[in-house]
Amino acid sequence: MRRVALSISDLTVKIGGKEILKRINIEIPERRILAVMGPSGSGKSTLLRAINRLLDLVPGCEVSGRVRIYDTEVYSSDPYKVRRLTGMVFQVPNPFPNMSIYDNVAVGPKMNGLVKDKRELDDLVRWALERAMLWDEVKDRLKDPPNKLSGGQQQRLCLARALALRPKLLLLDEPTANVDPINASKIEEALRGLVESHDITVVFVTHTPYQAVRISDYVAFLYMGELIEFGLTQEIALNPKHELTMRFLKGEA
Ligand SMILES: Nc1ncnc2c1ncn2[C@@H]1O[C@H](COP(=O)(O)OP(=O)(O)OP(=O)(O)O)[C@@H](O)[C@H]1O
């Protein structure tokens, strides 16, 4: 029996008094992938940032309702604990420019005391780079700076950096929007591998219906801050209930 990894109930987000997300309800079991879709400005990034409390950093932002990650009530827990449960990858690859490839992945576990010695750290760095499908390409140049990598490799490095903190929930905001198709398919393969073989649940934003259908188990469609459709990807792809979802899936919206 799979546990519920992420439960969002009646989540409403206002910024500067304007409702950006309206009473969102979503629940997904562990080790599943949720694709969040919807037109530009519909609130997809805001939803991701509500899950890991990055919205705390936005002035004038009010959040009501509940977000729970396993047993952790996100809005009544220490934000530090919430960030430890979640990892995030952004649309534009943002490796730490002044650190080596190795250190980009190692710095988080070192600062958070996740490893007891150098050997454990080396193992964790390798594990994360392997899971991000990058190890073979960088194993002989771990001391290089990240700007020697292609954009797609840098994005996989950011994925490895997030994974090295062993998150339970991985949040990705259009992770393949700025990478070529080969890198995009490596990232997709990495995400499927993570939920199938590791104890990780994934929520990612995408504008690409094919990508959502290829790799997600669940989809959530947002429109002007409302969740207009949510459910199993296969069911929604075959039988979307909402006209807008249908158009979106056909690439018309
Ligand atoms: N920090 C902020 N201050 C004011 N308004 C904001 C802020 N962040 C988001 N918004 C507004 O919230 C709405 C939703 O934005 P959000 O970035 O979540 O949409 P999105 O669906 O991710 O869009 P896109 O696909 O273009 O990235 C938009 O109207 C946006 O202008």
UniProtKB/TrEMBL annotation:
It comes from Korarchaeum cryptofilum (strain OPF8). The keyword Phosphoprotein does not apply. Keywords: ATP-binding, Nucleotide-binding, Transport. Coiled coil: none annotated. Residues 6-249 form the ABC transporter domain. PANTHER family: ABC TRANSPORTER I FAMILY MEMBER 17. One of its GO terms (biological process) is phosphate ion transmembrane transport. SMART domains: AAA. CDD domains: ABC_PstB_phosphate_transporter. InterPro entries: AAA+_ATPase, ABC_transporter-like_ATP-bd, ABC_transporter-like_CS, P-loop_NTPase, PstB-like. One of its GO terms (cellular component) is membrane. This is ABC transporter related. GO terms for molecular function: ATP binding; ATP hydrolysis activity; phosphate transmembrane transporter activity; transmembrane transporter activity. Gene3D superfamilies: P-loop containing nucleotide triphosphate hydrolases. SUPFAM superfamilies: P-loop containing nucleoside triphosphate hydrolases (SSF52540).
